[in-house]
Design goal:
The chain has 131 residues and is α+β, with helices and mostly antiparallel strands. 22% of the residues lie in helices and 23% in strands. The strands form two sheets. A three-stranded antiparallel β-sheet has the order 1-2-3. Strands 4-6-5 form a three-stranded antiparallel β-sheet. Strand 2 and strand 3 form a beta hairpin. InterPro entries: HTH_APSES_sf, SWI6-like, Tscrpt_reg_HTH_APSES-type.
Length: 131
Amino acid sequence: MSAQTSEQSTTGPRFRPYASPNHHVTKGRYITSNDPRGYIPVYEYPLNGQWIMLDMDDGYVLWTGIWKALGNNKADIVKIIDSQPDLASQLRRVRGGYLKIQGTWMPYEIALRLARRVAWPIRQDLIPLFG
């Protein structure tokens, strides 16, 4: 089963990446006090010096990694969010702790919609996330 959702089970992750011969996707688990689970379990891979991450439990995507892989400034994420106020309540911001997981996380469907709008230059490198 590929990226979006697979059947909820107690034995494995709910969200999984799409297969891609050009990307080496690995699993990680990062401890953080910013999440009620106490950690964030992810699928991850490097892109343009950034980490592309997908939370394997709830499908949240680290949008900061995609945005910076496009060559954009992290501060500009605020402009996107401000232009769509309905997004704010659905975002998860991780501050402090492990640098790799810091930034703005958003639900899979929202990240996919935004990526279709702004991430055309790296679309081939987002195949593990969005197919």
